[in-house]
Amino acid sequence: MRRTTPILLALVASAVVPGAGCRPSAEPDDAVAGEVAPPIEWRSASSADGTFFVRWRPLLEPIPLADPFDVEVEVWADDSMAVPARFDRILVDAGMPHHRHGMNVAPEIGPDGPARWIARGMLFHMPGRWQLYVDLIEDGRLERSQWSMWLSG
What is the rounded CA–CA span in Å between residue 140 and residue 47? Predict the structure, then answer.
């Protein structure tokens, strides 16, 4: 019975402290200490009737396939970006025009400062051509800005 005690203790110790002696690297292999990632590029366009100037960027790039991500949106009165636009409601959505469907989720949209909103929980669940829509509603009238992108799988 005494011969099994050291083996039993070793098994118990490995079960209690999984990965003991194995520490993950503090940084990914391709990261260089002190290196700062470049800022994520804004995509911009005027709304369909030219009433608003809208720009957006994902907060994670590249946009992940089948994983939630957030989008930052700014809405201005014009492309000088000096005056925040005034409107009643903002909607952020996306769809796949070739497949005739949209996302399987509805993002939550909240303000994040003057002229800025965050759409949380965007999800592109399959590869292909996607269109991102920013709809602005003012006095019951909807005006859209949209962008197309290709998501590889």
Answer: 16
The average confidence (pLDDT) of the chain is 85
Q: What are phi and psi of 16, to 5 degrees?
A: -75, -35
Q: How far apart are CA 84 and CA 136, in angstroms?
A: 13
Residue 92, burial from CB neighbour count under 10 angstroms (0-12, 13-18, 19+): buried
Instruction: Provide the whole-model pTM.
Output: 0.76
Q: How far apart are CA 107 and CA 130, in angstroms?
A: 16
Coil, strand or helix at 7: helix
Closest by CA to 85, choosing from 49, 121, 59, 120, is: 49
Q: What angle do CA 61, 72, 127 make, to 5 degrees?
A: 45
- Residue 69 structure tokens: 């991500």
Neighbours of 117 (CB within 10 A): 19
